[in-house]
Write a structure and sequence with these properties.
Distance between the termini: 89 Å
Number of strands: 18
Radius of gyration: 34 Å
Largest sheet: 6 strands, antiparallel
Structural class: alpha+beta
CATH topology of the largest domain: Phosphatase 2c, domain 1
Length: about 425
């Protein structure tokens, strides 16, 4: 049907009505363009649609693409017990319009095969006629946004003039809705970025601001999350006895959720360390403290904790499933020993409620290194190939006499270059201690 209306054929009273309706659409267009709040915008659309088309009710259905459903956001004079109308795109007149993406005018709804009288029966309403138009976004995608439906023209059936008006109204409403949704998404994204930046600052504040000075030892560390926030955690804690507590942990996943678990683990761990229990006792108490939460969230934490005795030159530790970057480098023999293959390595926190055992102590000769890191280094991929432990160990051996910070910087550089992308798959965290 053509959108052009021959105004010369209109009776005077109907012509005046049509002009008033066109003026109303023009007025509404200005109002829709100025409104950015979605709820107020939806209310304005249904209210002005009723007024412009002189009908009893109007409904605005939005399209849920994931669930393939239409649902009301606003309905004029919706009866008290009815809070929402939600229907499949394969049901009802609105569903027909959404599927076909074309206007429908129904003069006798009760005789139409797609009409569902259930809503009328629930609220005691009688639908006499329907005019329904799709809301299609403008642009390349022509995305279905929803459906505008008006019911019961007051003094006559809907005619060609009404169809022209509702097409114009639906077009302007779609533009306004599309723009308001984009604006809302942008605002939500900006709020999320602000929240993530705050979380990043808080998380960074939980890592050591300054590493402890250990006589006879050199120490360096770095942590670079893949996102604004990460799930890696390291710590260097000076204990009352003069020993140094070393922690390396990795929460499964990365992002905001794991960062919260990391903060919880840090708080619990620091509370336990006040009494300076043995490493395996620390893991047992930490496991009991966090087991229920981790299992409920279906997360786990790998964590290695040990104490460095700078007088006895010994590292005593226990391991809750952390590896493979947990190494002791014997500088004289240039041989690595894994701290993750001991029989007492254990399992990640959050898996089982079983006790941990101490691992074999590590004596430290001059020049020896303790290297603790997360799996982001070895699991960085290029195509189907991982950076791997061999490359990591080779890089460390090549520069094992360099200052520790230079060793760490070189490993970061090599890992990033291997990945060949600015978007990393995982967090990168590394802590190295050397007896000087």
């Amino acid at each position: 049907m053509s959108d052009w209306i021959d105004l010369e054929q209109f009776p005077a009273d109907k012509l005046q009505e049509h002009i008033r309706a066109l003026y109303s659409v023009l007025e509404v267009t200005t109002g829709l363009a100025a409104e950015k709040d979605l709820d107020r915008l939806f209310g304005l659309i249904v209210e002005r649609a009723c007024g412009a088309l002189c009908c009893e009710r109007a409904s605005l259905f939005l399209y849920d693409e994931v669930r393939q459903e239409l649902y009301t956001r606003k309905v004029t004079k919706l009866d008290g017990e009815v809070r929402e109308i939600r229907l499949s795109i394969n049901q009802g007149i609105a569903g027909l319009v959404a599927r076909e993406r074309r206007l429908e005018v129904i003069a006798d709804p009760y005789s139409h095969p797609e009409f569902n009288p259930e809503f009328d029966q629930r609220v005691g309403f009688r639908t006499r006629n329907i005019l329904c138009a799709p809301l299609i976004s403008w642009g390349k995608d022509d995305k279905l946004l929803g459906v505008l439906q008006v019911l019961n023209k007051r003094d006559r059936p809907f005619d060609a003039s009404d169809q022209q008006l509702v097409r114009a109204f639906a077009a302007h409403a779609a533009i306004a809705i599309d723009r308001a949704i984009l604006a809302q998404h942008f605002e939500e994204k900006m709020q999320l970025l602000v929240s993530l930046d705050l979380a990043r600052q808080v998380q960074a504040g939980l890592l050591p601001r300054q590493l402890a000075t250990i006589p006879g030892y050199e120490i360096a560390a770095i942590s670079q999350p893949a996102d604004q926030t990460g799930g890696d955690y390291y710590d260097v804690i000076r204990l009352q006895s003069g020993q140094i507590g070393l922690v390396m942990a990795d929460v499964s996943g990365h992002g905001f959720g794991p960062s919260l678990l990391m903060a919880t683990a840090r708080a619990a761990l620091r509370g336990i360390l006040g009494r300076e229990p043995a490493a395996e006792v620390v893991l047992n108490e930490l496991s009991r403290a966090m087991l229920d939460d981790l299992q409920h969230l279906r997360r786990f934490i790998t964590l290695l904790y040990g104490t460095l005795d700078p007088h006895q030159h010994c590292f005593c530790y226990a391991n809750a499933g952390h590896g493979p970057v947990a190494l002791h480098l014997n500088a004289e023999q240039r041989v690595f020993r894994s701290l993750a293959k001991d029989e007492a390595r254990g399992y990640p926190l959050g898996w089982l409620n079983q006790p941990y055992a101490a691992c074999a102590a590590v004596p430290l000769a001059r020049g020896d290194l303790i290297i603790l890191g997360t799996d982001g280094f070895v699991e960085t991929r290029r195509g189907g190939e991982q950076f791997g432990m061999q490359r990591l160990c080779d890089r460390i051996l090549e520069r094992c006499h360099d200052p520790l910070q230079q060793i760490i910087d070189n490993l970061i550089e090599a890992t990033v270059a291997f990945h060949e992308s600015t978007l990393r798959d995982d967090d990168l965290t590394l802590l190295i201690v050397r007896r000087t």
